Amino acid sequence: MCQEKYDFKLIAAEIVANHIHLIIKTVENKETISLIMQFIKARIAEKYNRAMGETGPFWNERFGSTIIEESDNPEEYLLWLLWYIGYNPVRKGLSRDPRKNEIGFINCYLDEKFVSPLIFTLHEYFNRLGQTFRERADKFLAYEDAYRKRLALWV
Q1: What is the tally of structural domains in the chain?
Q2: What three-state secondary structure class fits 47?
Q3: What is the mean pLDDT of residues 86-110?
Q4: Domain boundaries, position 94
Q5: Quick count: other Cβ atoms within 10 Å of Cβ 153?
Q6: CB 56: neighbour CB atoms within 10 A?
Q7: What is the CATH number of the domain that holds 56?
Q8: 3-state DSSP call for residue 133?
Q9: Which one, of 140, 121, 117, 95, lies nearest residue 1 by Cα?
Q10: What 8-state DSSP symbol labels residue 68?
Q11: Cβ contacts of residue 85 below 8 Å, gap of 6+?
């Protein structure tokens, strides 16, 4: 619904039991991230309350946001962050593989023919990884290996 109403690019999305992760790229001189998130959070609350016969607030906190382009190394950060978000349900015990998650956004970066229930835009940093989609996907998989090694250190 939000993608139909507002002009922005959805780079990644992952639903976890009690929160969601989104990477959204706003469009200059269009809607702000605050307006986009207000709409998303309101629609989720409405659907949840309707389904559960509840009323009232659904979200406890404001959303958190980080401007990727302001990080020390934006390209590395984004490519690592995509795997972090993809693995979130795995870390929570809800999934065994980010490729099998409900939305499966990570598959958009691995399979050129993957059809997602949401409209994702492959980030320009991903597109810089190679000349062909296969080349980009192969290099992107190296970020998964690095993420999994880092994840193993946390466990």
Answers
A1: 1
A2: helix
A3: 90
A4: 2-154
A5: 6
A6: 6
A7: 3.30.70
A8: helix
A9: 117
A10: G
A11: 12, 14, 21, 23, 105
